[in-house]
Amino acid sequence: MTKMYSRISGTGRCLPERILTNADLAQMVDTSDEWIRTRTGIERRHIAAEDQTTTDLAEGAARQAMEVAGVAPGDIDFLVVGTTTPDVVFPNVGCLVQERLGIGGFAAFSLEAACSGFIYALSVADQFVSSGKARRALVIGAETLSRIIDWNDRSTCVIFGDGAGAVVLEPSDEPGIISTHLRADGQYKDLLYHPYGTSKKQQADDDEQPFLQMKGNEVFKVAVRRLESIVDETMATNNLERGSIDWLIPHQANLRIIQLTAKRLGMSMEKVIMTLRDHGNTSAASVPMALDVAVRDGRVNRGDLLLLEAFGGGFTWGSALIRY
Ligand code: COA
Asked: What is the atom index within ligand 1 of the atom nearest the CA of 283?
């Protein structure tokens, strides 16, 4: 029997209308446009409206991706959403998107891998589509991180933004998704986390507020090392030489982290898709949104070799090598 692959047949994204610039943030906390730009590479980010949820953004991105792929909601038979900011504890965002699209009767779920959520979701969906267990999968990364940010904390509030990106995966005789690589290491749980949930604590107390907590400097160092090792592993597994990737589509966390990963791969920054300046760090949404930007503006074309990678709280990290 010939091996089957999954391939991306459509991409989409959805960003909230409201834009928060560095200048806006300088009115809110003791920071400056110059500090944010030079330390992170971010100039602006989109922030969800008060009544806009992760599911709203996920639905918008999913509809665009299906339109490009030329598939109707009824054609979908697998749905997975990477998110750490679900609308509610349950139903999961996958079920909520199903309800919006008027479809059901197949597996729909969300998975929590922080900023690596989309890479994890893509890898899971790839296992189903390439093994013939699903025919058309919707894979979404969607976040409303603005809801868990302390807007008085200058060390975190300047970094994050909201948005969603989606792809449709379909079976193909040729790659497609060539390989995915997932990793996690829970020993770093205290460097980047959100202290509230359901079984630990649900109400704010004086010690720890219900906001994202990050030791930025330490996260930076581990992120660089782990991303270097995952891109090395991806290249080695596929017998690829440095410089053979057409486009690097990295998680958009920090310009300096991305530059170091590109250097490791022997790639110039012209070959790296950057959306950080306009979107900030949108966690699980950042990689699929960057892919969609590059497909729509004509940089990424059919046949190009893409390397997607991400790193996030947990820590989790991962990569996907894709012949687009
Ligand atoms: N504006 C102005 N000053 C700020 C500031 C802001 N928004 N945020 C922090 N500072 C100050 C700090 O208070 C500190 O001041 P001090 O020296 O007087 O104590 C100084 O800037 C340096 O802080 P530090 O945290 O060491 O800065 P940094 O160079 O490490 O940059 C990050 C901070 C967060 C930009 C950087 O660590 C980073 O990007 N880390 C990775 C984070 C990440 O990618 N997270 C997501 C992973 S998915």
From this structure: 48
